[in-house]
Design brief:
By secondary structure, the chain is of the alpha+beta class. The chain is 16% helix and 24% strand. It is globular, with a radius of gyration of 22 Å.
Length: 245
Amino acid sequence: MFKKYERKPFQLKTFLLFVFAWSSLFALPSFSQTGFVKDIEGNTYKTIQIGNQIWMAENLKATKYNDGTKIPVIQDPANWLTTKESALCFSQTQNSSDSEKKEILYNWFAVSSEKLCPMGWHVPSDQDWIILEKEVGLAGDLIQTVGARGWGSKIDGKLKSAEKGLWQVDRDYYSNETGFTAVPGGYRTHTGTFQFQKQFAYWWSSSSESENFAWKRNLSYYRDIINRNTMLKNSGLCVRCIQDQ
């Protein structure tokens, strides 16, 4: 008769730890740099993979649509307030002596043209942002909620640039492990004033919420959240592009 094999406690424990480690490896989010993409003006952007999505790792800098048409530049506050047409502007720092690089901010009418991003890319929809948020660990019961989400989770640090002095307050958990490299470019209000440079990072989605509002995302220097909310369409926000699938 063959003797029945019994796994010893130590062997069983080692085996289970191996299985757990192996399964955990495949459960980890997938973050990696993938390469580069150019816009129609020759600006080059790093690209990263987060889960199954390919994102730009930098904010859009294009001043032309992908068909070569120039996007109107409106710096004057009064004209910014009244326009219902596509427009961009260059951010202004709150300290006039500050020599930081200025961001290009777009109103949502430029986003809705569907020609902002390089060919084969698009401005992420609200659903695209939701997929990203799931991948970086936002709890499932918070995904569809509106407002500040993820309190205490510090998942925003996976998206934020860890460069010292960039954010108003440096925090140790800013790891940028995804490579998304969020920077606090602030935004332009619908009345034409510039707000929150070094404090907040804002991006449009391509999803309209109503006649006057569209969905956006923002990160904050003083709260460890990802904010899902709406913004007036004639506000000026940064844009990230995501590759078509």
